[in-house]
Amino acid sequence: MNRLQPVINKNDRNARILILLSSSMVFLAIVVLSRTKWNVDLGFDVHLFARINAVINTIVSLLLITGLISIKNQRYLLHKRVMLMAMFFSTLFLLSYICHHLFAGETKYGGTGNLKYVYYTLLITHILLAAIILPFILFTTYRALTGEWVKHRKLAKITWPVWLYVSVSGVLVYLMISPFYN
Q: In 30, 34, 71, 131, which residue has its Cα 20 to 30 A from 23's Cα atom?
């Protein structure tokens, strides 16, 4: 099997500390900043950030699918590059997401009937899974970068579908809430 060489030296203790610390900081930043609204005129519709988020989530979804196909075809270098791009775009998403909530505040869903239940089910599952996926993504990446392929694959079987669900459901939530932006 022609796997890639490890990129970093294994140090589980330091990796665990760094991953859990950075994941906690991101989670706390989102919680704190999502409760804050800055009344600043940016000179453009602040919901542009939400549109950017939907585009980024679509890109991440496509990258995740490409990553799965590439690994199934044993194209390891392509898989590595695609998955690192997915992480890069997810970081851009995070920045845009924070900007949207800082400048736009909260938007109430105005739909009715069964669509309202679909929306809230999607939203709640999206939020819960988005809140827990980051450390899984980082641990999965760490296992790949240290060349621990068995552990990487075992984690990826959990991480990949949840990450894909979060990115796809993010787009669906945007499509359902965007008509109610002021």
A: 71
Distance, in Å, from the CA atom of 16 to the CA atom of 54, rounded to the nearest integer, reads 31
pLDDT tens-digit map of 92-146: 999 999 999 899 988 899 999 999 999 999 999 999 999 999 999 999 999 999 9
Question: Tokens in use for 137?
Answer: 């993504």
Q: Let me know: does 72 contact 3? Beta carbons within 8 Å.
A: no
Q: Running DSSP on this structure, what letter comes out for residue 100? A: H
Tell me the two tokens of residue 57: 């989530």
pLDDT tens, 37-93?
898 889 999 999 999 999 999 999 999 999 999 999 999 999 999 999 999 999 999
How large is the angle between the packed helices 48-72 and 149-177, nearest 10 degrees?
150
**Which tokens sit at 173?**
């939530």
- How many whole angstroms separate alpha carbon 126 and alpha carbon 131? 8
* Nearest one of 63, 62, 67, 64 to 79, comparing CA atoms: 67
Tell me how long the chain is.
182
Q: How far is CA 42 from CA 7, 70, 121, 180, 181, in A?
A: 42, 41, 33, 20, 17
Rounded to two decimals, the pTM is 0.92
Q: Are 167 and 60 in contact (CB under 8 A)?
A: yes
Rounded to 5°, the CA angle 81-48-100 comes to 80
